[in-house]
Specification:
2 helices, 0% strand, 68 residues, mainly alpha, elongated
């Protein structure tokens, strides 16, 4: 954004959007890594309630608690 760009009311949500992006960035990277690891083998991934997914959700929970 430059001074040449006119201000619009939609710009008021930028701080909230930046906060959401900051909070979910690590999760997005972790999800990308999981997908990239499965892509060469053509696997569809484990079921939703599998042990690796539960471990991943637990890790996310610990990170959220630590960041709060």
């Amino acid at each position: 954004m430059t001074r040449d760009e006119p201000w619009r009311p939609i710009h008021l949500i930028q701080p909230v959007a930046n906060l959401v992006h900051a909070v979910t960035f690590e999760w997005g990277i972790a999800r990308h890594d999981l997908d990239a690891a499965q892509a060469p083998t053509g696997e569809s991934g484990p079921p939703l309630r599998s042990e690796p997914n539960r471990a991943f959700a637990h890790k996310i929970g610990r990170q959220v608690a630590k960041d709060s």
